[in-house]
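Hello,

Our lab assistant flagged a job as stuck in the queue for most of the afternoon. It eventually completed. Since we weren't sure the result was trustworthy after the delay, we are filing this so someone can double-check. Below is the sequence as submitted and the structure that was eventually returned. Let us know if re-running is recommended.
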Amino acid sequence: MQTIWGIDLGGTKIEGVVLSSPSPDAVVIRKRIDTEAHKGYAHIASQ
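-- returned structure --
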């Protein structure tokens, strides 16, 4: 089994997901946190 990792670093959230293949739609784990963008870029990057 192969795993596929994805990370979305956006302005309002940071989200990570791990998928399993050969069924790439099979989510193994998903984690989403608020970026707290009002605290600035350095705060977002430090998360």
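-- support follow-up --
The delay was a queue issue, not a problem with the job. The result is valid. The chain has a mean pLDDT of 87. Strands lie at 2-9, 13-21, 26-34.
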